[in-house]
User: What shape does this take?
Amino acid sequence: MSITEWPEDERPRERLLSQGAAVLSDAELLAIFLRMGVKGKSAVDLGRELIATFGGLNRLFSATLDEFSAIHGMGPAKYTQLQAVFEMSRRALAEEMKEKSAFSSPNAVRDYLRLHLSGLHYEVFFALWLDAQNRLIVSEELFRGTLTQTSVYPREVVKKALWHNAAAVVLAHNHPSGVSEPSEADGALTRELKKALALIDVRVLDHFIVAGQAAPYSFAEKGVL
Assistant: This one.
């Protein structure tokens, strides 16, 4: 049955207008984005198929063009639109962190890192460079590794801190395995980077581990920074 044949108060677009976007499921939000389904499937059915295939929105956003296009009815046009929406979300969160202290909006920090890192199939090491008021200067990927490890060089991290004239940093990396608990190597690396950056008066405010759909692990909140 086409969505236009549904009762008006059950249609995703009408529900969004009357109740707000937060009440919609992931599949319903995707249905609004897709606008129409394919033969035999409504846009909501297609949204459910995308969620089921990729296991969630983060994996969907991180899909390659080939992976996305393997779904019947999907192709380059929808893929580029989806990536544009994803990038606008990241930039909106970055603007929020640039306008005020990153730690006056901790949820924005977590959401921003999850948008960047949680859907990746490989490990990356990431930094949010902050000014003296803890406002975001720039975010950047520092190192990229395999599924199991990344080589992080403290000297290069220090050079980046000086280049950006940063006063503080929030470090982050992802665990593609989906397990957010830090390894002994993660703890040792954090201590090494904190020591190296202290020599140039750059504070390490936190180190997050992003893994799957779980809330990112925070070294600061766990008291192990």
Residues 76-99 form the longest helix (24 residues).
